[in-house]
UniProtKB/TrEMBL annotation:
InterPro entries: ATP_synth_B-like_membr_sf, ATP_synth_b/b'su_bac/chlpt, ATP_synth_F0_bsu_bac, ATP_synthase_B_chain. One of its GO terms (molecular function) is proton-transporting ATP synthase activity, rotational mechanism. The keyword Cell membrane applies. It is a single-pass membrane protein. This is ATP synthase subunit b. F-type ATPases have 2 components, F(1) - the catalytic core - and F(0) - the membrane proton channel. F(1) has five subunits: alpha(3), beta(3), gamma(1), delta(1), epsilon(1). F(0) has four main subunits: a(1), b(2) and c(10-14). The alpha and beta chains form an alternating ring which encloses part of the gamma chain. F(1) is attached to F(0) by a central stalk formed by the gamma and epsilon chains, while a peripheral stalk is formed by the delta and b chains. F-type ATPases have 2 components, F(1) - the catalytic core - and F(0) - the membrane proton channel. F(1) has five subunits: alpha(3), beta(3), gamma(1), delta(1), epsilon(1). F(0) has three main subunits: a(1), b(2) and c(10-14). The alpha and beta chains form an alternating ring which encloses part of the gamma chain. F(1) is attached to F(0) by a central stalk formed by the gamma and epsilon chains, while a peripheral stalk is formed by the delta and b chains. The gene is atpF. The chain crosses the membrane at residues 12-30. CDD domains: ATP-synt_Fo_b.
Length: 164
C-alpha cells in the first residue's frame, strides 16, 4: 500500500527532482527547442509562400503558353491563307499566260494559213495563166495556119483598136 499512498518525503523528492529537471530544461533546452520550432514554423511558412509563388508562376506560364500556342495557330492559319492566295494567283496567272500563248499560236497559225492560201492562189493563178496562154497559142496556131485567116484576123484586130 505504500505505492498507492505516497509518503511526504517521496513526494518532496519527486517534486524537487521535477523542479530541477524543469529548471535545467528551461535554462538549457527550452529556448533552443522553441527556437527550433520557430525556425521550423518560419521554414514551413517560407516554403508555403514559395509553393504559392511557384503555383502562380506555373499558372502564368500556362497562360503564356496558351497565348503563344494561339498566336502560333493564328500565324499558321495566316500563312496558310497567304499560301493559298499565292497559289490561286499563280494558277490564275498561268491560265492567263496559257490563254495569251494560245491566242498567239492561233493568230500565228491563221497568218500561216492565210499566207499559204495566198501562195496557193498565186500558184493557181500562174498555172491558169500558163494553161490559158498555152491553150490560146495552140488555138491560134491551128486557126492561123492559113494565110488568109491570118490576114483577116489582123484586120479585125486593127479595126477593134481603131474604134477604141
Amino acid at each position: 500500500m505504500g505505492l498507492v499512498t505516497p509518503d511526504y518525503g517521496l513526494l518532496f523528492w519527486a517534486l524537487l527532482s521535477f523542479g530541477v529537471l524543469l529548471f535545467i530544461l528551461k535554462k538549457y533546452a527550452w529556448k533552443p527547442i522553441l527556437q527550433a520550432l520557430k525556425n521550423r514554423e518560419e521554414s514551413i511558412a517560407r516554403s508555403m509562400r514559395m509553393a504559392e509563388e511557384a503555383r502562380a508562376e506555373i499558372a502564368k506560364l500556362q497562360d503564356e503558353s496558351k497565348e503563344l500556342m494561339e498566336k502560333a495557330r493564328q500565324e499558321r492559319e495566316r500563312e496558310m491563307a497567304e499560301t493559298k492566295a499565292l497559289r490561286e494567283k499563280l494558277i490564275a496567272e498561268a491560265k492567263e499566260q496559257a490563254k495569251v500563248e494560245t491566242q498567239k499560236m492561233l493568230e500565228k497559225a491563221r497568218q500561216q494559213i492565210f499566207l499559204e492560201k495566198e501562195a496557193a492562189k498565186q500558184e493557181l493563178y500562174n498555172t491558169v495563166a500558163e494553161l490559158t496562154i498555152s491553150l490560146t497559142e495552140k488555138i491560134l496556131r491551128s486557126e492561123l495556119k492559113d494565110k488568109d485567116k491570118q490576114q483577116e484576123y489582123i484586120e479585125r484586130l486593127l479595126q477593134e483598136m481603131s474604134k477604141n
